[in-house]
Amino acid sequence: MTSGAVTAGRRPPPAGRAHRLPALWLLLLAAALVVLAALSVAIGTRDVGLGDILAALGGRIETIAEAAVAMRIPRTLLALLAGGALGLAGAIMQGVTRNPLADPGILGVNMGASLAVVVGVAWFEIASAYAYIFTAILGAGAAAAFVYVIGSLGRGGATPLKLALAGAATSIAFSSLVIAVVLPRADIAGGIRAWQVGGVGGATFERIHPVLPFLAAGFVVALLSARKLNALALGDELAAGLGEHVAATRAIAAFAAILLCGATTAVCGPIAFVGLVVPHLCRLLAGSDHRWLLPFSALGGAGLLLAADIVGRIIARPAELDVGIVTAFIGAPFFIWIVRRQRVRDL
């Protein structure tokens, strides 16, 4: 066999064909999301028919069934937005830290946002939606910086295991501080405890509207960071050699993740494990190219949170399980599997 034949035999597939399969999976994921959204509107404590759904979509709420559907529509929208934000934030954090265990919940970011909101409510009497959102984003940013600094101490710098341990310890400490702040305040304890579980129940369009600009900004910055995250995946030295400003790239991408996590926590409460589970599953379909992985993670996160919300309504009828509880049941075993698969000694 000639050398030319060997070269021809090893020629990679055309670029169009290489991108065709991820694009097909992305379309299938979007179609699955449409089905889940329809199920979310249809399934609940009260059974509804197609006529009730169409009437509610048209703005009619003359019957109890139509009113039930009208309440489920903003809930479905919030689950889509929050799940997409958390899935995208998880993929960003894993790319920025090159840490397979990175997740807004595991790294303490969600709990930092939660503590900031609780302190704001208890000590400063914040009440407006925008005050909640800004406070949560500041808390998320402070927690992320704190965990990264703690995880960077000692030999080896910020290894995945050290970051995970620092994040877990920080989450526990912040959770204890939340309890300490809330205990003396019986007037806010009930609402704070319900919010701390994490959920999308009781969503309204008025509650969703203030958070949309923050989520939109986070989505845009995150997706624009895809190429730079691909460079970071090669290592800091090689990324710098390719002309990337490593520190600035990390800061911008991390800002997008903090914006998404903080805004989502402000409106839904802390929801864990979505950002851990979704990027790992999406890599099976999209590979490691962040130009594909980030959109996949956004759609996958939306689908996972919406499916978890539907499951929570079904298994506890006529009551409901908050989505934060369902995602914890899914995510905790997945976290253990990831740790065993990566081998703790290699992290």
TrEMBL record:
The keyword Cell membrane applies. The keyword Transport applies. Keywords: Cell membrane, Membrane, Transmembrane, Transmembrane helix, Transport. It is found in: Cell membrane. The chain crosses the membrane at residues 21-43, 76-93, 105-124, 130-151, 163-183, 252-281, 293-315, 321-339. It comes from the Bacteria. Belongs to the binding-protein-dependent transport system permease family. FecCD subfamily. This is FecCD family ABC transporter permease.
